[in-house]
Amino acid sequence: MGVLEAPLVLIVEDEGPIAQLLSNALTEKGYRTLLATSGNEALAQLARYRIDLILLDLHLQGNQDGLDFFTEAKKAGHDVPVIVVTGANSETAATRALQQGVSDLILKSGAYFKLVLEATDRAIAQARRERSLAQAESRLQSIIDLAHEAILVFDANHRITLANPAAGRIFRCDPVGMLHEPLGKFLAVGMTQLVSAAQQKAVSHMEVEGRRADGERFPAEVSVSQPQQVGQETISTMILQDISERKKIEAALRESEQRASLQAAALQAAANAILISNIHGVIEWVNPAFTRLTGYAFDEVIGKTPNILKSGVEAREKYDQLWATVLAGKVWVGELINRRKDGSTYIEEQTITPVRDASGRIHHFIAIKQDVTERVRAEEAISEKERYLQFLIDQMPAVLWTTDREMKAQTIQGKGFGSLGIE
């Protein structure tokens, strides 16, 4: 934190000895000083330095009037406190000086140096307070102007006395035009509850329904302070946020959650086993049908890979082809001989689908599994019977006559069909 620089006092005095004595006295008290003997010289010092206080004699070099300098300084934009130190014991001069806004007036008589030092301390302290207040007000005004929320100040009659730029944007009107309008003009629902709640608590928060200048209503969240006495006025401050977009997002999230809940219920109730893994094949979720198929409970497989189901029967090349397919973003469909928790094997028909994000990057795989052991065995049994039947037919010495469902004659040529001399 930097050290504050000592205040700089400009002594405008045409009598050199007096000016020097004042300068010495002020320097001993920790002030910095500059000297000027005329109004023009003083104006030049004001233009060059940041002056905190002016000690001004009414009669300057060349019969210049000190108050004329004061007037010129104000016209030039130099808002610096001035203490008049004069030997002119004139009520007219004193009145004129005070009317022009000097901070104090001290006559050059008796122990006036002490009075000058005391007046200087008071003026510097007051100037610092005013400067700090002005800076605080400037910061506050910047915050009010830059705020995204509407900031409204209203009086005891609920009429708006301040509206920031955001209020104009939210209510779609000129914020200056909102001044002196009743607050209820901009609140469609909640005005009575809001004011009542503000009477009970230091700050109350609630949702209300706002009304824009074009009549459109919108959901809003407001905070309002208790009424406060400021001078002769009783005021309250309200901060209002348009939550239309938030409400839309919340509604969309609720709808999404409902859809997700339905989808989750469907997955849970699915007859086929479902497994979800990450890009590395680590299992993140399985449904109850998976447990019924494999014998492994949910907690037993989470964090593991589908390798726990390997039977050792399938060739490694088959798994390599499976991974090459899904990592390329394609769907793999095929059959594997897997092993259950109890050690029994089964034939599993499996469809593995890659899941991509918005950028197209694969981040998960979904595998849908079905036990097709009985179907495969039945198909193999039928194939075996067909092969056996064909073998019998091939061994027949003559023609075999059969009929179809419409009782039309059908012939099947046996091995001895050619012996009949029929081609």
Structure description:
The protein is α+β, with helices and mostly antiparallel strands and 423 residues long. It contains 13 helices and 21 strands. It has helices spanning 16-28, 39-48, 66-75, 91-99, 112-146, 165-171, 175-178, 191-200, 244-269, 288-294, 298-301, 316-327, 373-394, and strands at residues 8-12, 32-36, 53-56, 59-60, 64-65, 82-86, 104-107, 150-155, 160-163, 187-189, 203-211, 217-225, 228-230, 233-242, 273-278, 283-286, 332-339, 345-356, 362-371, 400-403, 409-412. It is elongated. The protein starts with 7 loop residues before the first strand and ends in an 11-residue tail after the last strand. Mean pLDDT is 85; it is low at 416-423.
Which key features would you list for this structure?
28% strand; alpha+beta; 423 residues; five-stranded parallel beta sheet; single chain; 13 helices
Map the helices and strands.
Layout (H helix, E strand, L loop, with lengths): L7 E5 L3 H13 L3 E5 L2 H10 L4 E4 L2 E2 L3 E2 H10 L6 E5 L4 H9 L4 E4 L4 H35 L3 E6 L4 E4 L1 H7 L3 H4 L8 E3 L1 H10 L2 E9 L5 E9 L2 E3 L2 E10 L1 H26 L3 E6 L4 E4 L1 H7 L3 H4 L14 H12 L4 E8 L5 E12 L5 E10 L1 H22 L5 E4 L5 E4 L11
Parallel strand pairs: 1-2, 1-3, 3-6, 6-7
Antiparallel strand pairs: 4-5, 8-9, 8-14, 10-11, 11-12, 12-14, 13-14, 15-16, 15-19, 17-18, 18-19, 20-21
